[in-house]
Amino acid sequence: MDPGVKEAIGKVYRKVQKQYETGQRHHDPGNDGIVPRRDGIQHKPADTGQREYLLCDHCPTYQHGHLQADYGLTYEKNPLYWGTTKINGKDYKIPFVDKLSWPIIVDEATRLAALRTGKCDINESVRVIYKKSLEDTNPDLARYRILSTSVLNIAMREDTKPFDDIRVRQALSMAIDRQGIINSLQLGEAETLSFPFAATWGPGLYTPLDQLPQDAQDLFKYDPAKAKKLMTDAGLSSGFQTEMVVSSSGTTQTDTAAMILSNWEANLNVKVTLKPADYATYLSIQYGKSFKGMYMMSKGNGDPGAVLLVIGPPADQYWNPSMWDDATYAETFQKAREAPDRETAYKYLSECNIRFIEQAPTIILPVGYYYAYAWPWVHNWYGEVNTNTRQPGLIHATIWIDRATRSKVTGQ
């Protein structure tokens, strides 16, 4: 493990371990929330001193996380966990596995080698570019296709010219060859529209691209001629110059931005200077809204209410780097929050989703699929990666391993 990575993990681990020891925190892998101790005692939160916590029902499936040097994290089965799972009509107490090991492997090639050789039973996130090679080398691996819930958007400051003009935002969107991005960077495995609502959410919430109002559909069509006309109508027939902040962590944002900037310069004479930043700086720029023109952000879908809450008005929301403030959206969202039933709430939430797309405070980019893999000795797992908000512990608790088969194949 890289010494810098190990040191950073160690700092976080020591801080969290202290919270374990003082009873402030219980850990379910993937969920780092601070919760009251499960000891039947009501504790007063220090920040209010007024209302008391009720007994917390959060009882983790695995506990006592330990950081092992040059390996990663391990968790022990919680013998007090009360849950069960039903298989073929019969209830079984979970977790099945006594110890959960979670190696931290920074290098992608090393992660793949661990999967290929059976040193890892499961890899929950493998890029699509490795699909063919894994088919060739490990045809027995179970494979599950998953749509990413992390979506790239290009935010444009609406408190700054020329982005306060919707025609400019529309033109920039129409001048992007999205299919080219899908073919080149995502190997054809992507959805053109999966934001704010995820394409996997289905009817009642997600509105398919071909069912959106026509002006919203047009934003996703590669139409340089129409884009050029919109720029001319906005008084920018000769284009303009601006800059865009991108994350320098990995190559996803920089590769995507390079294709988009080429489209804009060729089609609209819009010249954009990239401003790469390390992730900590990149986030501080987003939260402080200290960029000049554009900001490429990666935003999760979350859940219907949460994603609409943080990306929309008021303008000072930190997931609203466009500084977008729209009264119609705000009023409709408030109606959703006050709705007497789910059906009514979904109706208003869906309207907000469409309103965001139509108003184009951000340029929504295609979102790709990735793959999860497991060896045949992994049972009762079918590619699930999250329950609720990034809480995989409940999933891991229902998995079991055929150790005899694993030993026969790997000698482990």
What do these coordinates show?
There is one protein chain. By secondary structure, the protein is of the alpha+beta class. It has two domains: 3-121 and 375-410, no CATH class; 150-368, Dipeptide-binding Protein, Domain 3 (Dipeptide-binding Protein, domain 3). It is built from 14 helices and 16 strands. Strands 11-10-12-8-13 form a five-stranded mixed β-sheet. Strands 6, 7, 9 and 14 form a four-stranded antiparallel β-sheet that branches. A three-stranded antiparallel β-sheet has the order 1-2-5, covered by helices on one side. Helix 4 (166-174) packs antiparallel against helix 7 (224-233) and helix 11 (327-337) packs antiparallel against helix 12. It is globular, with a radius of gyration of 24 Å.
* Most strands sheet: 5 strands, mixed
Mean pLDDT: 86
Return the CATH architecture of the largest domain.
Answer: Roll
Question: Taking strands numbered 1, 2, ... along the chain, how are they ordered across the largest sheet?
Answer: 11-10-12-8-13
> Which ranges are low-confidence, i.e. pLDDT below 50, for 5 or more consecutive residues?
19-57
Into how many domains do the coordinates divide?
2
| Rg over alpha carbons | 24 Å
Provide the structure class. alpha+beta
| Terminal residue distance | 22 Å
CATH first level of the largest domain: Alpha Beta
- Note the overall shape: globular
Assigned CATH superfamily of the largest domain: Dipeptide-binding Protein, Domain 3
